[in-house]
Amino acid sequence: MVSAREIETELLERWALGYLGQYASSAENLRRVLMRRVRRHSPEAVPPARPLIEAIVARYREAGLLDDDAYAAARATSLNRRGDSLMAIRARLMAKGVAGEVVAGAVGSLQELGLDPDLAAACAFARRRRLGPFRRAAGDRARELAAFARAGFSRRVAEAVLACADEEAVATLARDGLG
């Protein structure tokens, strides 16, 4: 435990830089992380720490250490490559405290690339979860469709991926789209 007197700008700064050294973050997420640490170390220090945290977040935004637009764009691209649907990407970014218009811009930039980002993500999702042509044994189509639905993919996209005969067909589908 840390006393309320010890929670000052220097300690908060150390915590913030330590966190940002390990993880990319939105401004709101860094604010939440710092408040959680203050609460855990010294609950009575929460009210005096709030303005200090706000000052740190504002200073980091001005310095460019926190840029919600860049964070959202990079995270959306990363999650899409990993196989997350656009719906799941929106939800994750909103959960990290990114503003709705910033999230819309990041998802919109994925859609501007020309190809269907949901289709490419569904192909990656199938590969990662070993669904459709990536499965090793006979699979239950209804269960596989349900897995796609829970991940936020439309039925049309899920059926297109599951209809592929082999891994090459999935790669072609991801590259060329449903057309």
Q: What do you see in this structure?
A:
The chain has three domains: 4-63; 68-111; 117-176, no CATH class. Helices cover 70% and strands 0% of the residues. It has helices at residues 9-22, 27-41, 46-63, 68-82, 86-95, 100-111, 117-129, 141-150, 155-162, 167-176. 30% of the residues are buried. The model has no long low-confidence stretch (mean pLDDT 91).
Which key features would you list for this structure?
179 residues, mainly alpha, 3 domains, 10 helices, elongated
Please outline what is shown here.
This protein has 179 residues and is mainly alpha-helical.
Helix-strand sequence: HHHHHHHHHH
Count of helical stretches: 10
Total number of beta strands: 0
How is the quaternary structure best described?
A: single chain
Beta-strand residue percentage? under 5%
Structural class: mainly alpha
**Cα-atom Rg, whole angstroms?**
21 Å
Major β-sheet profile = none
Tertiary shape = elongated
Low-confidence stretches: none
Terminal CA distance:
60 Å
Q: Write down the overall mean pLDDT.
A: 91
Domain module tally? 3
Question: Residue share in helices?
Answer: 55-70%
Write the topology of this structure:
Blueprint: H1 9-22, H2 27-41, H3 46-63, H4 68-82, H5 86-95, H6 100-111, H7 117-129, H8 141-150, H9 155-162, H10 167-176
